[in-house]
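In the current project phase, work has continued on tokenised descriptions of protein folds. One protein thus recorded appears below exactly as we store it.

——
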Amino acid sequence: MSKACSYPNSTALRHAFCPANLFLAKCRFFGYIAMRGVQCKGVSMKLNWANRITIIRILLIIPFVICMLKANDAGLSDALREMMRYVSVVIFFVMAVSDGIDGYLARRDGETTKLGSFLDPMADKLLMTCACVLLAMPRGGVAGFSLPPTVAVLIIGKDLFLLIGFVIIYFITFQVRVVPVLIGKIATTLQLSMVAGILLAPDISRFLPGWIWFLRVLWWSAAGTAILATLIYIRNGSRYVEEYEQANS
């Protein structure tokens, strides 16, 4: 006689698939991966400290977005909204500094990995996408210093094109290829400076009344370099695909 199969009851299923429980499970999983690494086919692949810092930088985007939204919450007092803006500034600067620290550690210890080469630019793109969307919206921007939607679209569009190009190259060559270029690094630096300048604009403008004009030059410069970087990445990606096809023809 075959054994009777036992199934969990509906209450257990609802508990297991509750969104809150699933979110906690994901947090535990990624926390374990960040601290202990993963094992694949018996081979241990531990994350180095550079990659761990990058993962932490990605996770910090969540409180950054929350604080930005709370900074414009009409239900909060003026003092509390101001405090939320300062907290978002602190979180942003922590992420910006960690961007340099993880790269320094990887180069110093000779632990530059493909995972780190993928995670580091992804962290920058996620941060800039969230920051540009928020700063261009009344709900998440800084009053009087809103980012023009055109600038936000150009910067986010650059990252979207790079993501599409990355996927196309991967499906053609089955290789992960992330090669930063100088103009891309300049674009990222300008974008980080732009976000910091907007977040601190209410304070700086008290001493520098013309700060808004500096910001306008900065955000259009960031948009221009984003367009230029996109064109260069498209050219480099096309050349790489052509070289790959010629080598394997």
